[in-house]
Structure formats: structure tokens, C-alpha cells
Design goal:
Bound molecules: uridine-5'-diphosphate
Keywords: Glycosyltransferase, Transferase
Organism: Plantactinospora sonchi
Structural class: alpha/beta
CATH architecture of the largest domain: 3-Layer(aba) Sandwich
Number of helices: 14
Number of strands: 14
Number of domains: 2
Shape: globular
Distance between the termini: 29 Å
Strand order of the largest sheet: 3-4-2-1-5-6-7-8
EC number: 2.4.-.-
Protein name: Glycosyltransferase
GO molecular function: glycosyltransferase activity
CATH class of the largest domain: Alpha Beta
Length: 406
């Protein structure tokens, strides 16, 4: 099938770890590659956010990334992108007609891509599949007035859920949230993200370790909801171990980054500054080296739509101590591949990590089970097969849609 992936802010070609570049970018890149490997013709449409970007870049065999001119060709925070979605969809329609390449299905990633997708699909009669990646209702619940999303986000997300042909939820928790929002259950299919088991495996180079120090790794964008501050606060309970935080600014800008400074100041305050290291963003291809160097991964978000980093660690044979939220409650099997603790609870986190660090036998057991689970249950080819089946189903039954793009 001809598949148009729309990922308005998250380019599959982006450098990851910065504030708006993480799991969605990985997801779109890996899913597109796996769909192409299964024989689909995939084009990924993402906003042109630099003047130097060519219109089309070949990412891999049978996957083109197309940079859509919508708004100024410069980086813009995703919460500021809504006004450009009309231009985005109009450009898509013009391009599909000009190229004589009308997709069989549009797969939109994130709510704004959904608006652009629905608007374009309405003019071309193409079905739309939606993956939210994150929900405004959840973000608002946790962030309150600190949430910078456009005020209309939640309303649009609800309308989208009723207008698209199919919603792909990434976890059971997301299904519950979508039902609470009023999205009909029969419109949803649960398909988890995958992990690249060739890239993420126990065999291969590892970053050298600090002699005599167990290593706790945590990975992701340096945003508050990832809970790094809770891990730093837990560190006094975990003597001797070092905590390595991967993600955030490019390496040259680590020392001046405000989030890094805040975490370092906290580490100073709780007396663990000599055992907390902030590395900055690491290129995607080097991530396995970091996972392999760790005794365990901590993923302590306050909420998490899916969470790729626990799966990546598991695929490298690294157990996870995580918070019992969102996708982690599906991927991490509590007491078998890792331990789950309540979110925003440094004492519970510290106790769980300390106990697992000292209990080498349990840690090895978890590591084996984690590796086994990641390799058996999660792969991008499996995700692509399931999503391909959804594409086929929605192409057979086309429904008229009814949402208005802002
Ligand atoms: N990542 C990376 N380099 C970094 C930090 C993160 O390549 O410095 C990748 C990480 O390996 C994972 C993704 O970014 O593939 C983060 O995805 P996750 O779902 O854990 O978090 P999100 O960004 O969606 O909140």
C-alpha cells in the first residue's frame, strides 16, 4: 500500500534527546522502515524546520522523508505549530495531486498531524489512522497551569478520535484514557511500539564503567515529567552506585543547560553530586553502548504514553525499575523483568533500586526475562504487520469524517 505518514514536529531524521525529539521520532523512523521492508511504499511528511533541508530525503530503501513548507523554515516549539497545520494539509493535497501519488492510507502521529491528515484526506477520500503518542488530558492533569499546549488541544483530540477511521492505542492505559475522553472503544486497536532487536541486544560494545561503582542508567528528554529529580532524591538511599542521565542538550551545551543545572544543584543539595553524571544527548546508534554498560535502567516518569527506553534496555538484557504508569505497566512485568513503584515517590524508588542492586541473583533473573520478553513480544516487524492489517481493514471500509482543522 502507499502509506503517507504524517509527523508534523517529529522528524525521523532528527537528532534525539532534545525537548521535542524522542520517542515519536524513533517510532516513525522504525515503523516506516519495517512497513517498507514488508513491501509498503512509505512517505513520511514532516515540517521543514531548517532552510538547508532538501524537499525530499531518502531515509532507507522505499522510505522518503518529505519536508513540508508550513510556517517559517526554522525550529518552532511544537506547542506553537497549530496555526501552520492548514498550510501543511493544503500542501499535501497539492503535492499528491501533482505527483499522481495519492496514498491509500494516511497515518497521523500526534494530534496536530491528525488535523492535517483529516483535512487532506477529506479532499482525497483517503482513510486516516491516528496514533496520539501523548494525550492533552493526561498532560493537563499532571502539569496543570504549566501545560503550554494550545487550549483547544483536548477538544481536537476528542473530535479526532471520533472522526478518524481507526485509533491505534499503544497501551491498555491509553485505551482507558481514550474511553474517558469519549473515543468509542470500537474505533481502537491496541498495538504496542516495538524495539529494534538487532540494534538493541546484549552483544556489542559498551561504554566503560567506573570501577567499583554499580551503574544506574536513565534515558530521555530532560523534561520534568520524566522524574529525574525523583531519582536524584533517591540516590542517598543507594550507596556507592553512580547515576548516569543520558539525554537533553548536545554534549557541548551540557554545562549551560538550565535543566542540567537544576538537576546538578539538586544533586549537590542532597549530597550525591559526585555520583550523578549528566551526559547530554547521545546519537541513536550509540544508545546500545550505554544500556549495555548499566546494571539497571530506571524509568521514573510521572506519566508515560508508551516509553521506548525501558524496552530498549530490556532488549539489551538490562532489568528496569520503573514507575507503574502508562505503557510501563504493559512492558515491564513487575517482579519478573523489573520492579514497578509508585510515581513521584523517591523513597519507594530508592528502596527498589537498592534492593535490586544488592540482590545479584534476582537482577540476573530479571535480565534474562527482560531480554526474552523484549525479543519474543516486541519487534518492529510485528508492530508493522499489525498496523498493516489495520491499514487494509480501513481501506476496505471507508467512512466519511467530520472534524474541522484549526
Ligand atoms: N534517545 C536517544 N538519545 C538520547 C535520548 C534519547 O537516541 O540522548 C532516544 C531513546 O533511545 C528512545 C527515544 O529517544 O528511542 C525516547 O523515547 P521514549 O519513548 O522513551 O520517550 P519520549 O521521548 O517519547 O518521551
Amino acid at each position: 500500500m502507499r502509506v503517507a505518514m504524517i509527523s508534523e514536529h517529529a522528524s525521523p531524521l532528527a537528532v534525539l534527546g532534545g525537548e521535542d525529539a524522542g520517542g515519536q521520532n524513533t517510532h516513525v523512523a522504525e515503523l516506516s522502515t519495517a512497513l517498507a521492508a514488508a513491501g509498503h511504499d512509505v512517505r513520511v511528511y514532516t515540517r521543514r524546520d531548517g532552510p538547508e533541508l532538501p524537499e525530499t530525503v531518502r531515509m532507507s530503501d522505499a522510505v522518503d522523508v518529505v519536508h513540508v513548507p508550513a510556517g517559517p523554515p526554522e525550529p518552532i516549539a511544537k506547542d506553537e505549530l497549530l496555526p501552520y497545520m492548514k498550510d501543511f494539509s493544503a500542501w499535501l493535497v497539492g503535492r499528491w495531486r501533482a505527483d499522481d501519488w495519492v496514498p491509500d492510507v494516511v497515518h497521523a502521529h500526534f494530534w496536530m498531524s491528525g488535523l492535517a491528515g483529516i483535512a487532506a484526506a477529506r479532499q482525497t477520500g483517503v482513510p486516516v489512522v491516528q496514533t496520539y503518542h501523548a494525550l492533552g488530558t493526561v498532560k493537563r492533569r499532571h502539569q496543570g497551569t504549566a501545560d503550554t499546549s494550545p487550549a483547544r488541544r483536548v477538544g481536537y483530540e476528542r473530535a479526532l478520535g471520533r472522526a478518524v477511521d481507526r485509533v491505534i492505542a499503544q497501551s491498555q492505559d491509553e485505551v482507558r484514557e481514550l474511553v474517558r475522553m469519549g473515543v468509542p472503544l470500537d474505533r481502537m486497536t491496541v498495538i504496542p511500539s516495538g524495539v529494534n532487536n538487532r540494534t538493541f541486544s546484549p552483544e556489542g560494545p559498551a561504554v566503560p564503567r567506573t570501577p567499583g561503582r554499580p551503574r544506574i542508567l536513565t534515558v530521555g528528554r530532560l523534561v520534568e515529567r520524566k522524574g529525574y529529580q525523583d531519582l536524584v532524591r533517591a540516590m542517598p538511599m543507594i550507596p556507592d552506585a553512580e547515576c548516569v542521565i543520558v539525554g537533553g542538550p548536545p554534549p557541548g551545551e551540557v554545562d549551560t543547560d538550565p535543566q542540567v543545572r537544576r538537576l546538578r544543584a539538586l544533586a549537590e543539595e542532597v549530597g550525591v553530586a559526585d555520583r550523578v553524571r549528566l551526559i547530554g544527548a547521545v546519537p541513536r546508534e550509540e544508545m546500545p553502548y550505554w544500556y549495555r554498560s548499566a546494571d539497571l535502567l530506571v524509568a521514573a516518569p510521572w506519566y508515560e504514553p508508551f516509553g521506548l527506553t525501558p524496552l530498549e534496555a530490556m532488549a539489551c538484557g538490562v532489568p528496569v525499575v520503573g514507575t507503574a504508569v502508562g505503557g510501563l505497566t504493559d512492558t515491564v512485568v513487575d517482579g519478573r523483568t523489573g520492579d514497578l513503584v509508585p510515581p513521584r515517590d523517591p523513597a519507594a524508588l530508592g528502596a527498589a533500586v537498592r534492593d535490586l542492586i544488592v540482590d545479584r541473583v534476582r537482577r540476573y533473573g530479571y535480565a534474562r526475562a527482560a531480554l526474552d520478553r523484549a525479543h519474543r513480544e516486541y519487534s518492529w516487524s510485528r508492530t508493522a504487520d499489525q498496523i498493516g492489517a489495520v491499514y487494509s481493514a480501513v481501506s476496505e471500509v471507508r467512512r466519511p469524517s467530520g472534524v474541522v482543522a484549526g
